[in-house]
Specification:
Rossmann fold, 202 residues, 7-stranded parallel sheet
Length: 202
C-alpha cells in the first residue's frame, strides 16, 4: 500500500458502515483523505461530517437545496463514484441505490469497497466483467463477505464449497430445541440491526 494517501468517497456516510469507515479515517488521517460524502436522509449528520472532513464532493438525496455551499460541489452518486479525484469508493448505501454508482466506479477503474450486496445480486456478472475490463478492484467490506474473501485470499486451489454459518443475532445462544420455536416476529427484533422483513428473513 505504501505511503500514498488514499482519496475516498463514502456513499452512505451516515449509515453504520459509513460511520465506521469515517472512524478509520479519523484514526489514520495520514493514510486517508475524504474527497466525497453522500447520504440519503440524515442531513444533520451529513452536515456534521461535511464540517469535519471538508469533502470537495457532496450528495444528499432529500435535501439538495439546503446543502448549497461554495466549499464543495453537489454531484450525483454516479459522478462522485467516477470522479478523477477519487481513488477508492466505499459503497455503503442500501438496496438498489448502490447499483448505478457501483457500475460507474468500476467503469472508471476505481477501487470499490463494497458493502452493498444488492448490487451483486442484481448485476453481479455485469459488475465483475466491467471490473475486469477496466482494472477495477472490488473489495468486500460487509462482515461475512469480507471474512470469506480474507479466508480465500492467497489460496492457490479454488474452494469446492463454502459454508457460512450465522455470526450472531438474537438467537446466538439458543439451543436447537429453542430454535425450532422461533417466530417471524422474534426474527425481526434484532438487537443491533433494524433491517426490515426482506433483509432479515430474505
Amino acid at each position: 500500500m505504501g505511503n500514498t494517501v488514499k482519496r475516498l468517497a463514502i456513499l452512505g456516510s451516515t449509515g453504520s458502515i459509513g460511520q465506521q469507515t469515517l472512524e478509520v479515517v479519523r484514526a489514520l488521517p495520514h493514510r486517508f483523505h475524504i474527497v466525497g460524502l453522500a447520504a440519503g436522509k440524515n442531513i444533520n449528520l451529513l452536515t456534521k461530517q461535511i464540517n469535519e472532513f471538508k469533502p470537495r464532493l457532496v450528495y444528499c438525496q432529500n435535501a439538495k437545496e439546503h446543502l448549497a455551499n461554495a466549499e464543495y460541489e453537489l454531484l450525483s452518486l454516479e459522478d462522485i463514484a467516477r470522479h478523477p479525484q477519487v481513488d477508492t469508493v466505499v459503497i455503503a448505501t442500501s438496496g438498489k441505490s448502490g447499483l448505478s454508482p457501483t457500475l460507474a466506479a468500476v467503469k472508471a477503474g476505481k477501487n470499490v469497497a463494497l458493502a452493498n450486496k444488492e448490487s451483486l445480486v442484481m448485476a453481479g456478472e455485469i459488475i465483475t466483467n466491467e471490473a475486469k475490463l477496466n482494472a477495477a478492484r472490488i473489495l468486500p467490506i460487509d462482515s461475512e463477505h469480507s471474512a470469506i474473501w480474507q479466508c480465500l485470499n492467497g489460496e492457490t486451489q479454488p474452494a469446492v464449497q463454502l459454508i457460512l454459518t450465522a455470526s450472531g443475532g438474537p438467537f446466538r445462544h439458543y439451543s436447537p430445541t429453542q430454535l425450532k420455536e422461533v417466530t417471524a416476529k422474534q426474527a425481526l427484533k434484532h438487537p443491533t440491526w433494524q433491517m426490515g422483513r426482506k433483509v432479515t428473513k430474505g
